[in-house]
Amino acid sequence: MLVAIVTGGGQGIGRAIAIAFGNRDTHVVVADIHGSNARDVQEEIQKTGTKALAIEVDVSSEPSVTLMIKRALEEFGTIDILVNNAGIYPSTTIENLTNPSWDRVIGTNLTGQFLCARAVVPIMRAKKKGRIINMSSSTALRGAKNGAHYAASKAGIIGFTKALALELAPTGITVNAVCPGLTDTAQPRGHMAEQELYDKKDRVPLGRIAQPQDMVGPVLFLASDKAGHITGQTVFVNGGDLMW
Length: 244
Known about the structure:
- By secondary structure, the chain is of the alpha/beta class.
- It has a single domain, classed as Rossmann fold.
- It is built from nine helices and seven strands.
- Strands 3-2-1-4-5-6-7 form a seven-stranded parallel β-sheet, with helices on both faces.
- The model has no long low-confidence stretch (mean pLDDT 94).
């Protein structure tokens, strides 16, 4: 049975992806900075009869990531899939954007993906197969008002994905990015009123903002054998809001 790590798996998009893997007979490591959220998702997955492991992790911390990998290997023996989903978006203007805030966002959103990918590559390389899926954002191309740190981190993920895909292609490991558009999760509600969030649907050609479940299909596909000849690609899931 395959083993998948989903960071930021305790809520929103990560939760939907983790549960979907569980429903596909994949053992799931639900990794989240909020341990209680991770445990809730673990329990939900285990109700399906699939094994899951909740791990509290700070992806911006190398020791924390190292411990996550150690615990995952102790529990399941291997890692086949990594979904780098953990991310934060504390909205602020450029004048009020402090160095610590910049470092925190880049550390979580971009450095966190680097640390997790670097940790799993030796395991996947030994198997001559693996799937790394990095969650970016449409803001990587369109920018984000009051979110320079966030947009920069998400643009960096696309560059990181392409570079890693080139490096790992000879090993049988594929690396791709998924870019959600505005999605109905807790994250946009941190800097956007409820009505403003739903008013955004008017700019989306398909007529609605995304739900976390909308990201599941693309991620499961990229993690599957059917996507074995796809690497270094960026998949936009935004209802046509941004066409690229």
